[in-house]
Design a protein that fits this description.
This protein has 301 residues and is an alpha+beta fold. Among the domains are: 142 residues, no CATH class; 60 residues, SH3 type barrels. It contains four helices and 14 strands. The strands form three sheets. Strands 1, 2, 3, 4, 5, 6 and 7 form a seven-stranded mixed beta sheet that branches. Strands 8, 9, 12, 13 and 14 form a five-stranded antiparallel beta sheet that branches. The protein starts with 21 loop residues before the first helix and ends in a 6-residue tail after the last strand. About 13% of the residues have low confidence. InterPro entries: SH3-like_bac-type (IPR003646). This is SH3 domain-containing protein. It comes from Polyangium fumosum. Pfam families: SH3_3.
């Protein structure tokens, strides 16, 4: 019996079916372009030669110095035994104010009774920086001369009034003095009197100021101008302290000045020290022939 055969059919694609899918080709090309640009930056790889700026930087770093750029020869050593001159202090290019020692002229107790001996008042740490700041007062620009300012302090009301010393024989013009007093009044308006230990209610304190114009080297200011008036006391940067203490920390630092001063000694636990002064939370002590400041917590105070 003969087998039935299927007719063979041949399908011929049309020209449209043989065209590539341009949309897919575009997507693949775009992805490849992005990866080709981005991956060197992500991997930290530098493609291509250095730009002229980079080459210039390398030349400047690696090139040996020329004869014109060679280091200057070292100075010849000083002869043995020759005295070494200390460099002179260069004059300041800013207006400066040197503040002399403070003098207490009068003080009164809480009953408004005048006291003969006012003792010492720990006023310098808060008052001297304010007085030195008068160098920036507009009336003090280019000023050269001496002036005495008085501070009338009321600790109960926490007020400070700045006045010119009536006995001051200054050569500074009156209008300039008035301007300086106004600047000082603004500076002392918020004086932290709570940081100043005081025994009496009211004090009148005088400070002698010396103004130096730019280019002049400041020197120590002289005593207040009203020298004919007997002093009832003086200002100081520290209060008196008496007694002894014992270091309670494993290691306590003794500094040349409170808080940020140079360390002059290190004391171990149990070291006995002598107390000779105090400034807020710091005690002035003597130990082993050295004098310095130690934080009160280090001696359990």
């Amino acid at each position: 019996m003969a087998k039935s055969t299927r007719p063979v059919t041949i399908e011929r694609p049309s020209p449209a079916d043989e065209r590539p899918a341009w949309s897919r080709v575009g997507i693949v090309a775009a992805v490849g372009f992005v990866l080709g640009i981005a991956w060197p930056k992500l991997a930290g790889v530098k493609v291509g030669p250095n730009v002229p700026g980079d080459l210039k930087a390398q030349v400047e770093v690696t090139a040996p110095p020329t004869s014109a750029q060679a280091a200057p020869p070292a100075a010849a050593p000083a002869p043995t035994g020759a005295p070494t001159a200390e460099p002179a202090a260069a004059p300041s290019n800013k207006q400066t104010v040197a503040v002399g020692p403070g003098k207490i002229s009068r003080c009164w107790d809480k009953k408004n009774k005048k006291v003969t001996d006012c003792g010492a008042l720990q006023l310098d740490p808060v008052a001297v920086p304010k007085l030195q700041g008068l160098a920036e007062c507009p009336s003090a620009v280019g000023l050269s001369g001496k002036l005495t300012l008085g501070l009338e302090i009321d600790f109960e009301k926490k007020e400070v009034h700045v006045v010119k010393n009536k006995k001051d024989k200054t050569t500074i013009p009156t209008s300039t003095v008035t301007g300086i007093v106004q600047c000082a009044s603004r500076a002392f308006a918020n004086l932290p009197l709570e940081d100043v230990p005081n025994k009496y209610r009211n004090y009148t304190v005088q400070y002698g100021l010396t103004f130096y114009p730019p280019g002049k080297a400041p020197e120590e200011a002289e005593a207040p101008a009203g020298e004919g008036e007997a002093a009832a006391g003086s200002t100081t940067s520290e209060a008196e302290a008496n007694g002894t203490g014992v270091v309670s920390w494993d290691t306590a630092l003794v500094r040349k000045d409170p808080k940020d001063g140079e360390v002059v000694a290190r004391l171990v636990r149990g070291t006995k020290i002598k107390l000779v002064g105090r400034r807020n939370d710091w005690f002035k002590v003597e130990t082993g022939g050295k004098t310095g400041w130690i934080y009160r917590g280090a001696i359990g105070l």
